[in-house]
Amino acid sequence: MAPDTGLAAPVRRLATAAAAGVAVGLVAVGGLTLDGTLRGATETTFAFGALALGVGLLGWSGSVMAGRGIENMQRYMDTGSDWTESDSRRAMTRIIGFGVGVMFAASLATALL
Amino acid sequence: MISTRYVIKRLVLLIPVLFGVATLVFSILHLSPGNPATVIATQQADAAEIQRIEERLGLDDPIWVQYVRFMVEVVQFDLGESWVHNKGEPVTDILRWKFPITLQLAVLGQIAGIVFGIPIGIISAVKQDTITDHISRIGALTGISVPIFWSGPLIILLFAVHLDWFPTNGLLSNGPLPKITGVLLIDSIIKGDIVMFVDAAWHLFLPSMVIGIYSMALISRMMRSSMLEVVRQDYIRTARAKGQGEKITLLKHGLRNALIPVVTVIGIQFGSLLGGAVLTETVFNIRGIGMLLVDAITDGDYPVVQGIVLLFAVVFTMVNLFVDLTYTYLDPRIEQ
Fold first, then answer.
1. Please, which pLDDT band fits residue B124 given cuts at 50, 70 and 90?
2. Which residues of A52-91 are buried (b: 16+ CB within 10 A; e: fewer)?
3. Residues B36 and B302: beta-carbon distance below 8 Å
4. Coiled coil located at which positions (chain B) (predicted)?
5. Please, what sign has the CA dihedral across residues B198, B200, B206, B211?
6. What Å distances lie between residue B158 and A80, B80, B151, B222, B327, CA to CA?
7. pLDDT digits (tens, 9 = 90+) for B299-328
8. What is the reported pTM?
9. Which long-range contacts (CB under 8 A, 24 or more apart) does B184-191 make?
10. Rg of chain B over CA atoms, in angstroms?
């Protein structure tokens, strides 16, 4: 199968991760509500989602800014690491999607309940 | 030459970086325990009073509303108002006068690090495996290993308490700080007040040295290893074979190439200098942004903490952009 090109692949990756984030977020809100208030549960869940989003954004931009330099340095130092800029960007896209999903789930729970 | 496209690309990448930092700060502050409204309220305040404070600050809104409001305000360069320190004063105004104090300290520390670190590194590389090299390597290792919260009090004890050469705290012996640019040394020059300039330099010397020690140690180590690698290159041998003097060979051909990794280190550790300023200001009782950050975290003053962290992120990324442009100038192949 030919590899995906253009925007389709990143968007699908983001959407899949976001869907997983929504599921995890709803479970987290439910679980935390059992142990405290709904407001506290949604705030904590939202903040954890924002944490993932922040880490993902910083990781993504770091990969874009310095990724090729790091790849070259690893090649130069012959470290034998499999780390690549594109792999890192893909991973960070998933983390961003997951974070957004969790934040959305927490917001949804606040609005509905 | 550095292309405009490269600079624009780097500037555009600042947007996700700052968005990410703002999101991280927001999430960490909301995950930390404690309710800012109870900190702001007096000890005698009842639940109704705390609720009124929460309503006034918007803390009773759903968290996603707070997040969106925060992001919209950040985009408009509105960092809100302080809840605790100078209650009601815009955070941007507070930062306007506090940041130059810290920046001055960090820049002086960086200058000390560069001025001493680069020559020490070069001398150490040129005199490899001699007693000079061993002394500078031990000095560098010590400088990297000793934390500011330990070196600061020790230096105060020696130079301020026992020898009485320098003051122990503050930025001026007496009188208020002039408010022209916020950078004391520049302000004293603008005012034409030589006595104030000397007094400020006298007060800033020890804290700058404390900050600069780590920087100096790191730069000299990096300079040494980079120089050792460069002096073994073919083009250096060729320059020597052509009869060029040792000083010109090292400084003209060697230094420019050896500087590339050093410049990177200088840029990266400027961030740690800003972080170091937080500790140094506490040790030397300098009322800059570092002490303000510590106080704001302790008091739960969210807008001030968010403003300071965002400001640090902007400065750090701008310094790194400048460093990138510098080493693109030093070695144009990097741009490719």
1. very high
2. bbbbbbbbbbbbbbebeebbeeeeeeeeeeeeebeebbeb
3. yes
4. none
5. negative
6. 49, 43, 11, 29, 39
7. 878 889 889 988 888 888 888 788 777 767
8. 0.79
9. B184/B101, B184/B104, B185/B104
10. 24
Q: Which residues of A fall within a CB distance of 8 Å from B67?
A: 46, 50, 103
Degrees (nearest 5) of the Cα angle B93, B97, B101? Answer: 150
How high is the pLDDT of residue B5? Answer: 80
Comparing CB atoms, the residue among B10, B17, B30 nearest residue A43 is B30
**Model confidence pLDDT, tens digit, residues A48-65:** 999 999 999 999 998 888
Q: Collect all residues of chain A within an 8 Å Cβ-Cβ radius of residue B24.
A: 50-51, 54-55, 58
Note the ipTM here.
0.87
Q: Is the pLDDT reported for residue B49 higher than 50?
A: yes
* Fold category of B93-335 in CATH: MetI-like fold (1.10.3720)
For residues A32 and A61, is the Cβ–Cβ distance under 8 A? no
Contacts of B27 in chain A (CB under 8 A): 47-51, 53-54
Domain map (residue ranges) of chain B: 93-335
Of the candidates B10, B67, B334, the beta carbon closest to that of A50 is on B67
What CA–CA distance (Å, rounded) separates B178 from B314? 26
Contact A48 B20 (CB under 8 A): no
Tell me the chain B residues in contact with residue A58 when contact means C-beta distances shorter than 8 Å. 16-17, 20-21, 24
**Minimal CA–CA distance to B199: which of B159, B163, B181, B172?**
B172
pLDDT at A1 over 50: no
Closest residue in A to B261 (Cα) is: A73
CA atoms within 13 A on the CB side of B5: 2
Q: Nearest residue on chain A to B65, judged by CA atoms?
A: A107
Supply angle C-alpha B199, B214, B125, rounded to 5. Answer: 115
Helix (H, G, I), strand (E, B) or coil at B283: helix
Contact assignment for B64 to A103 by CB distance below 8 Å: yes
